[in-house]
Task: inverse folding
C-alpha cells in the first residue's frame, strides 16, 4: 500500500514538474521576446580595503551604471560582502531599494569572497534559457581573520565557482585598485573556470569603461553603439519603439547630461562618468544628447531599442483555376482550382499610436523569418509589410508569429496571431452544355414550325369563300378556295350620299401591292380618312381573287351591296373585275358609297414601290 | 380603220346657261349599279344639251333673264334663275338671243372689231355701245316696221284664198312674233315711249331755226298781198291716231292693238296706242298741244327708269352674256361655210361645284364610261371647257352647309373652284378628256394684264394642279379676251329734257347726260382655245388654211402642232387683236417656261398679208418633265392611237397588236407612216411608234416618238391564255 502511495506521489510530482515546466514554457512564450532573459548578480567587495582602493565609491556607481543600462528583461541582484554578507538584493528588486542599498553600504571587515559568491550563486533563479553572470567588484584576494576561515572561504569560493560553472554562470571579475595585479591570484579562478573575464581597473580602463565594455561586449542583448561627435551623441529613435535606453560613458567625468526628445516619459540617470537616458513611448526621430563638461572624446554609448509589437495579419482567400489544356476543355473536364491565401503582415506597435514598426526605413528590404502554422518562412519586408501567398488547402486558420532578429532590437510581441481563413466555396463549374442534342431537337422543331408556318401561310393565303354561281339568279353556292392571289388595281371611292349631307371628296385606294388577305371596307374608309361610324362597313369584306378580280363579300345585316345592278347575297363572295362598280348602301339607310374597281398602269404601279 | 373616229372635237362645256332647262345631272339620272348609259339616254342627252352652233344653243337652252317689278321701291328686278316666289303672271321672261340689243351689241362689237382689225385702244366702243340707247332701239324698230308695214300692205292687197296671201301670213306671223318680243313687256316699250315723246316734243328740233315758238303745223299759202305765209292748219277735234295712208295701215294698227291686247290682259290704251304708233307710221296730225310739263316729266322719268333698269339688267345678265359670247366665240372659230368635222358642244348646264360633288361625279363617270370607253367614237368627248376658274388657287367647293363660321371672304359666286376643277380633271384623265380652263375673266386677266405682268402669276395659280396624274389633261388658257374694256364701257342713253319757255329741248348740261356702265365684258380664253383646237381637228378646216395637198382628208388634226413652223400664222383665231403685242421680255419668259395655252396679239405678216387676228402662241398642258410643259397634241395623239388601237385590235388582243404595228403595208402603222408628210398625219415627220409587250405583266408599252421625244403609252393586252401576273 505504501509502495503504491509512493508511486502515486512520484507520478504526482512528475505531473507537477511537467505542469511547472509547461507553465514556464508558456511563460517564456508569453514573454514573447526575441532575446533571452538575463540575470546579473553584482558581487561587491565592501571590505575595509575598499575604502583605500575606491575612495570615490566608484564601485557602487559602476553597479548603478550596469543596473540602469540593462534592458527590461534583464534582472540584477546584489551581494555586498565583507567579512559577512553586508547586503543582499534579490534580482527583480526595485530600483529604489537597490539605490538605498547601495547608498547605505559601508566598507569594513575582511574579504569573505567565498561566502559572498555562494550567496550570489544562490540568488540566481532556476529559469531555463536565461543568461546568467556575476560581476564581481573586488580589490583583493580572499582575506579572513584566520587562515581556517580563509581556507574555508576559499573552498567555499571554489565550490561556488564550481556550482556557478555548472549553472552556466559566467563571472566577470573587476579588480579595483592596484593590489590585484597578479593574475594567478586565487580569486581570479572563478573567471577562468566560468569562462568569464577579468578586468583590471586602470589596465582595462576606468570602472565606467569596464562596465561599458561588459555591457557592450559580454552581455548578450541587442544594442546599437553610438559614437560621440563633438560633445554630443545622436540617437536615432525609429518608429514604434516602446522603450529606449540610451547609455553613455566616459573615462572622464562627463558633466551634466541633457537630452530632450518627445516621449511619454523621459528619465536621465547620471553618474560621475556615465549617464543613462530612458524613454518611454518616444516619437521617432533623432535625439541629441549633450554632455556638459566634456568635449566628447572618450565618450562611448549604445542604445537599446525595445518594441512592444503585435503582428497584424490579413488573409485573403482566393481560388485559382489551373489552366486546362484545349483537350481538357473539349472533353469538358472540370477545372482544378488551387486554393491560396494571400497574407499581408505588418508589425504594429502595441502601444501609442500603433504605428507600423516595419514602416521605418531600417526594416525595408530586411529578411524576416515567419512561423506560420509551425513552418518557417523567410520573407522580405517591402514597403513596410510582408506579402506572401500560401496554399490554403486543408488550412482553416493561420497561426502567424514573427521571428524578429535579436541583433536589431528587443521585440516583445503578442503572438502568435491567429487568422481565420474565410473560405469561399469553389466556383460551381458549369460545364459547357452539349448543345448538339438540343440543336438536333431545335432543328426538328424548326422544321416542324416551318412546315406548320408553310401550312398556315398556305391556309392564310387560301381563303374558302362560298362563291356565287356564274349566272345571276342561281341559288347554288360553291365553296371556292382562293389562294395566293395578290391584290391588283385600285378602288375609286365616291361617297354618293351621307347622313349629314356633307360632301366627301372622291378618294383612291390602291389595292395593288398590298398583302393578300382580307380587307374590310371599314379599313379602306379609315385609311382614306372617311369616318362614318358603325354603319356596317366592317362587315363588307374584300379578297383578292384570280384573274385580277376582287371578291366582295357582304356579311352585314343591314347593308345592301350591289355589283352593277345585282344585289349581293349575304355571305356569298362575288368576283368583281376591272371597271366594275360596286354600290354600297349602309345600315343607316342614308349613306351610300360607290366603289369603282380600276386597273393600274405599269407606270402607276412603279410609283407605288418608290 | 383610219376613219373609224369621225370626230375628235366633241367638247363638254361645264357651265350653266339656263337653270330652267334640263341639265346633265338630271338627264343622266340615277346611275346606281350602272356602268354605262343606254343609247337612248345618250340620244336624250344629246337632244337636250348637245349643240352644233350658237343658234342651236340659243334654241335648245333658251337663255333668258327673268324680270319683275318691285312696287315698294318702284324698281325693276332681274334674275337669271326663275324666282319661285313670284307668280308666273307677274314675271317677265326676257330672252337672250341675237335680237337682244345688249347681246347683239356685243356680237356686233366682236364682228366689227374683227372686220376693222383695230386694237382696243383705237376702237370706238361708244359707237357700238350706243346700240342699246333708246334711239338705236327705235331705229332698229323703224327698220322692222318698214318691213312689217310693207308686208302687211302686200298681205292686205291680196284676196282671200290667194295662196300667196298665206305665205305672206306666215311671214307676218314671224314678224309679229319678233315685234311682240318688244311690246309684250313694258320694259321693252320704254325706249319706244321715250322716243315717242321725244319725237313729239322735239318735232322741228332738227331744223336750223332755233326759235322758241311752239310748233303749229300749217300749209303754205299766198296771202292777200301775195306774200308767202304758212297758215296754221285747222286741227281735227280728235286725239285718235290718223292714218295718212289707206285703210291698210288701219288694219295693221288694229292687228297690233289686238295682238298687244291678247298678249297683255292688263294692258292699257296708252301702251296700246304706243305700240300702234311705234309700229305704224306716225300721224302727222298728232296733237302738238299736249301737256308739255307732263310729257317732259314722263320723258325724264322714263329715261331714268330706263337707265336704272338697263343698269340692273346688264349687271344681272352680264355673266350669262359672257358665257353666251364664249360659246359664240367657240363656234366662231370654225367657219360656217366649211362642212366637215364641225365642232359640237355638250353643255352640262349644271354648276360645277354641284357636278363635282362626290355624289354626282359618278354620273359624269358613267356618262364618260359610255361615250369614251366604247369602240364607238361618235359621242366621244375629247375636250372640256371650264372657264371662270377662281384665281384663288386654294379655292374650295362651296360647302353644302357652313357648319362653322369660316373666314369672311368676298368671293365671286359665279366662279368655278379649283377643287371642283381638280376633281373633274381626275375623272377626265381616266377618259382622255383634255380640259381647257381659264381663270375668271376680268380686267386682271386680259392681254393688257399679261403684257404687263407676264405668265408667272398664272403659273403660280396652277401650282396645285401640277405634278398630278391629271396634269396632262389640264390646259390653262390665257389671257382672257376683252369684248368691252372696263374703262370704255360707258353707254350714253340720252339726255334729260328741259322746258325752255313754251318748248321742250334736250339739256346741254353734262350732268343731264344719262349714262350707264357695263363694267367691261370679257370672254374666257378657254372658249376660244377649245374652239380653235376643235376647229383644226377638221381636215377640211386645215385644207382651207393650208391647201388640200398638205392635208389628208381622212385624218383628224390630232397631230397638228400649232407651235410648229408657221402654223400659228395660218391658223389664227377669229378674235381681233387687242393690244400691240407683248414685249420681248414677256415673250422670252413665255418661251422659257413654255407654259399654258397662250394667245398672242402680235403684229405679224403671212404671205404679205397683215394678220389682224389673235394667234396662238403656246399650246401646252400642265404635265412637265421639270423643265418644260408638254404640248397638248402629244396627249391627243396618244389618246387617238390608244382608241384606234383598242378598236383595231379587238380590245388589245396581243396578236392583233403585233399585226397593228407590223411592217405589212396594210398595217395601221404602215398606213400612218405612209401619210407622215401630211400636216395632219398621225405620225409626223420625225415621229415613230414602237411597241414592247410585257408578257409577265400583260402590258403593251407603246413608245411614241414625237420629234425625238418619247412618250409612253401603256395598254393592258387582252391575252387568250390566263393572266400570268
Result:
Amino acid at each position: 500500500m505504501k509502495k503504491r502511495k509512493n508511486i502515486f506521489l512520484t507520478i504526482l510530482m512528475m505531473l507537477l514538474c511537467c505542469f511547472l515546466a509547461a507553465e514556464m514554457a508558456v511563460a517564456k512564450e508569453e514573454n514573447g521576446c526575441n532575446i533571452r532573459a538575463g540575470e546579473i548578480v553584482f558581487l561587491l567587495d565592501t571590505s575595509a580595503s575598499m575604502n583605500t582602493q575606491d575612495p570615490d565609491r566608484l564601485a557602487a556607481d559602476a553597479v548603478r551604471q550596469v543596473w540602469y543600462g540593462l534592458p527590461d528583461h534583464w534582472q540584477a541582484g546584489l551581494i555586498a560582502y565583507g567579512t559577512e554578507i553586508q547586503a543582499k538584493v534579490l534580482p527583480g528588486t526595485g530600483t529604489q531599494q537597490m539605490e538605498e542599498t547601495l547608498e547605505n553600504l559601508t566598507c569594513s571587515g575582511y574579504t569573505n569572497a567565498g561566502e559572498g559568491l555562494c550567496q550570489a550563486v544562490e540568488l540566481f533563479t532556476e529559469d531555463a534559457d536565461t543568461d546568467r553572470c556575476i560581476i564581481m567588484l573586488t580589490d583583493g584576494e580572499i582575506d579572513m581573520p584566520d587562515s581556517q576561515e580563509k581556507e574555508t572561504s576559499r573552498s567555499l569560493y571554489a565550490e561556488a565557482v564550481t556550482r556557478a560553472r555548472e549553472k552556466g554562470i559566467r563571472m566577470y571579475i573587476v579588480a579595483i585598485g592596484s593590489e590585484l595585479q597578479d593574475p594567478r591570484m586565487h580569486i581570479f579562478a572563478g573567471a577562468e573556470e566560468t569562462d568569464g573575464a577579468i578586468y583590471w581597473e586602470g589596465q582595462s580602463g576606468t570602472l565606467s569603461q569596464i562596465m561599458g565594455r561588459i555591457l557592450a561586449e559580454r552581455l548578450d542583448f541587442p544594442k546599437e553603439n553610438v559614437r560621440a561627435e563633438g560633445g554630443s551623441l545622436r540617437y536615432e529613435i525609429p518608429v514604434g519603439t516602446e522603450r529606449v535606453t540610451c547609455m553613455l560613458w566616459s573615462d572622464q567625468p562627463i558633466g551634466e547630461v541633457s537630452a530632450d526628445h518627445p516621449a511619454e516619459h523621459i528619465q536621465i540617470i547620471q553618474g560621475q562618468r556615465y549617464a543613462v537616458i530612458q524613454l518611454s513611448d518616444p516619437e521617432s526621430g533623432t535625439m541629441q544628447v549633450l554632455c556638459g563638461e566634456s568635449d566628447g572624446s572618450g565618450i562611448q554609448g549604445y542604445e537599446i531599442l525595445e518594441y512592444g509589437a503585435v503582428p497584424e495579419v490579413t488573409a485573403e482567400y482566393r481560388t485559382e483555376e489551373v489552366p486546362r489544356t484545349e483537350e481538357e476543355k473539349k472533353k469538358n473536364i472540370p477545372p482544378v482550382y488551387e486554393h491560396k491565401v494571400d497574407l499581408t503582415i505588418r508589425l504594429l506597435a502595441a502601444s501609442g499610436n500603433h504605428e507600423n514598426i516595419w514602416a521605418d526605413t531600417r526594416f525595408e528590404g530586411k529578411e524576416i523569418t515567419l512561423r506560420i502554422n509551425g513552418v518557417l518562412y523567410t520573407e522580405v519586408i517591402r514597403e513596410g509589410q510582408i506579402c506572401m501567398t500560401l496554399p490554403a488547402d486543408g488550412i482553416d486558420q493561420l497561426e502567424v508569429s514573427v521571428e524578429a532578429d535579436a541583433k536589431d532590437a528587443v521585440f516583445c510581441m503578442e503572438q502568435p496571431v491567429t487568422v481565420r481563413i474565410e473560405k469561399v466555396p469553389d466556383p460551381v463549374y458549369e460545364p459547357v452544355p452539349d448543345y448538339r442534342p438540343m440543336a438536333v431537337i431545335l432543328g426538328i422543331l424548326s422544321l416542324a414550325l416551318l412546315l406548320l408556318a408553310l401550312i398556315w401561310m398556305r391556309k392564310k393565303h387560301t381563303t374558302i369563300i362560298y362563291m356565287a354561281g356564274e349566272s345571276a339568279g342561281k341559288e347554288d353556292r360553291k365553296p371556292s378556295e382562293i389562294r395566293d392571289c395578290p391584290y391588283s388595281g385600285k378602288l375609286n371611292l365616291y361617297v354618293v350620299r351621307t347622313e349629314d349631307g356633307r360632301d366627301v371628296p372622291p378618294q383612291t385606294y390602291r389595292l395593288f401591292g398590298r398583302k393578300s388577305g382580307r380587307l374590310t371596307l371599314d379599313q379602306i374608309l379609315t385609311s382614306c380618312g372617311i369616318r362614318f361610324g358603325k354603319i356596317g362597313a366592317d362587315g363588307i369584306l374584300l379578297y383578292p381573287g384570280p384573274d385580277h378580280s376582287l371578291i366582295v363579300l357582304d356579311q352585314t345585316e343591314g347593308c345592301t351591296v350591289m355589283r352593277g345592278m345585282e344585289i349581293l347575297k349575304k355571305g356569298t363572295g362575288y368576283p368583281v373585275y376591272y371597271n366594275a362598280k360596286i354600290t354600297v348602301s349602309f345600315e343607316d339607310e342614308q349613306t351610300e358609297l360607290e366603289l369603282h374597281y380600276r386597273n393600274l398602269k405599269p407606270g402607276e404601279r412603279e410609283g407605288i414601290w418608290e | 380603220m383610219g376613219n373609224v373616229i369621225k370626230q375628235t372635237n366633241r367638247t363638254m362645256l361645264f357651265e350653266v346657261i339656263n337653270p330652267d332647262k334640263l341639265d346633265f345631272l338630271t338627264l343622266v339620272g340615277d346611275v346606281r349599279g350602272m356602268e354605262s348609259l343606254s343609247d337612248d339616254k345618250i340620244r336624250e342627252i344629246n337632244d337636250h344639251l348637245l349643240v352644233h352652233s350658237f343658234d342651236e344653243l340659243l334654241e335648245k337652252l333658251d337663255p333668258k333673264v327673268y324680270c319683275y317689278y318691285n312696287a315698294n321701291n318702284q324698281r325693276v328686278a332681274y334674275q337669271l334663275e326663275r324666282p319661285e316666289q313670284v307668280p308666273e303672271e307677274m314675271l317677265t321672261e326676257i330672252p337672250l338671243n341675237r335680237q337682244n340689243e345688249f347681246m347683239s351689241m356685243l356680237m356686233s362689237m366682236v364682228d366689227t372689231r374683227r372686220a376693222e382689225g383695230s386694237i382696243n385702244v383705237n376702237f370706238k366702243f361708244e359707237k357700238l355701245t350706243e346700240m342699246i340707247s333708246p334711239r338705236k332701239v327705235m331705229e332698229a324698230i323703224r327698220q322692222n316696221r318698214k318691213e312689217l308695214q310693207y308686208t302687211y300692205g302686200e298681205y292686205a292687197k291680196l284676196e282671200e284664198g290667194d295662196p300667196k296671201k298665206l305665205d305672206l301670213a306666215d311671214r307676218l306671223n314671224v314678224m309679229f312674233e319678233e315685234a311682240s318680243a318688244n311690246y309684250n313687256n313694258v320694259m321693252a316699250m320704254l325706249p319706244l315711249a321715250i322716243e315717242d315723246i321725244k319725237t313729239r316734243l322735239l318735232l322741228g328740233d332738227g331744223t336750223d331755226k332755233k326759235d322758241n315758238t311752239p310748233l303749229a303745223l300749217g300749209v303754205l299759202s299766198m296771202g292777200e298781198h301775195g306774200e308767202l305765209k304758212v297758215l296754221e292748219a285747222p286741227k281735227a277735234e280728235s286725239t285718235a291716231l290718223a292714218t295718212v295712208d289707206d285703210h291698210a295701215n288701219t288694219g295693221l294698227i288694229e292687228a297690233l292693238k289686238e295682238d298687244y291686247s291678247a298678249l297683255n290682259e292688263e294692258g292699257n290704251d296708252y301702251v296700246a296706242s304706243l305700240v300702234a304708233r311705234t309700229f305704224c307710221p306716225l300721224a302727222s296730225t298728232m296733237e302738238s298741244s299736249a301737256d308739255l310739263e307732263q310729257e317732259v316729266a314722263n320723258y325724264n322719268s322714263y329715261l331714268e327708269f330706263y337707265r336704272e333698269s338697263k343698269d340692273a339688267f346688264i349687271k344681272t345678265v352680264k355673266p350669262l352674256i359672257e358665257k353666251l359670247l364664249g360659246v359664240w366665240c367657240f363656234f366662231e372659230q370654225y367657219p360656217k361655210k366649211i362642212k366637215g368635222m364641225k365642232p359640237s358642244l355638250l353643255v352640262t348646264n349644271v354648276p360645277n361645284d354641284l357636278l363635282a360633288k362626290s355624289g354626282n361625279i359618278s354620273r359624269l363617270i358613267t356618262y364618260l364610261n359610255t361615250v369614251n370607253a366604247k369602240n364607238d367614237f361618235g359621242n366621244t368627248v375629247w375636250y372640256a371647257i371650264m372657264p371662270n376658274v377662281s384665281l384663288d388657287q386654294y379655292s374650295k367647293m362651296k360647302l353644302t352647309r357652313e357648319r362653322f363660321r369660316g373666314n369672311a371672304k368676298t368671293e365671286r359666286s359665279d366662279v368655278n373652284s379649283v377643287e371642283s376643277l381638280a376633281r373633274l380633271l381626275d375623272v377626265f384623265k381616266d377618259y382622255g378628256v383634255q380640259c381647257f380652263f381659264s381663270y375668271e375673266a376680268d380686267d386682271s386677266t386680259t392681254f393688257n394684264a399679261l403684257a404687263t405682268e407676264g405668265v408667272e402669276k398664272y403659273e403660280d395659280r396652277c401650282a396645285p394642279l401640277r405634278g398630278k396624274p391629271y396634269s396632262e389633261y389640264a390646259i390653262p388658257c390665257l389671257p382672257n379676251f376683252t369684248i368691252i374694256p372696263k374703262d370704255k364701257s360707258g353707254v350714253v342713253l340720252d339726255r334729260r329734257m328741259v322746258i325752255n319757255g313754251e318748248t321742250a329741248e334736250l339739256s346741254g348740261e353734262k350732268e343731264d347726260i344719262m349714262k350707264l356702265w357695263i363694267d367691261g365684258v370679257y370672254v374666257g380664253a378657254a372658249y376660244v382655245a377649245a374652239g380653235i383646237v376643235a376647229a383644226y381637228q377638221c381636215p377640211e378646216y386645215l385644207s382651207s388654211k393650208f391647201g388640200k395637198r398638205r392635208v389628208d382628208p381622212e385624218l383628224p388634226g390630232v397631230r397638228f402642232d400649232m407651235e410648229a413652223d408657221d402654223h400659228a400664222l395660218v391658223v389664227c383665231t377669229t378674235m381681233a387683236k387687242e393690244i400691240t403685242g407683248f414685249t420681248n421680255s414677256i415673250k422670252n419668259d413665255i418661251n422659257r417656261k413654255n407654259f399654258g395655252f397662250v394667245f398672242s396679239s402680235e403684229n405679224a405678216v403671212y404671205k404679205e398679208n397683215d394678220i389682224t387676228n389673235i394667234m396662238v402662241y403656246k399650246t401646252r398642258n400642265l404635265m412637265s418633265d421639270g423643265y418644260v410643259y408638254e404640248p397638248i397634241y402629244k396627249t391627243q395623239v396618244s389618246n387617238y392611237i390608244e382608241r384606234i388601237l383598242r378598236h383595231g385590235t379587238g380590245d388589245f388582243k396581243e396578236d392583233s397588236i403585233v399585226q397593228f404595228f407590223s411592217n405589212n403595208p396594210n398595217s395601221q402603222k404602215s398606213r400612218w407612216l405612209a401619210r407622215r408628210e401630211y400636216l395632219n398625219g398621225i405620225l409626223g415627220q420625225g415621229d415613230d411608234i414602237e411597241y414592247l409587250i410585257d408578257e409577265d405583266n400583260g402590258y403593251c408599252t407603246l413608245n411614241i416618238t414625237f420629234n425625238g421625244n418619247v412618250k409612253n403609252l401603256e395598254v393592258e393586252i387582252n391575252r387568250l391564255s390566263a393572266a400570268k401576273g
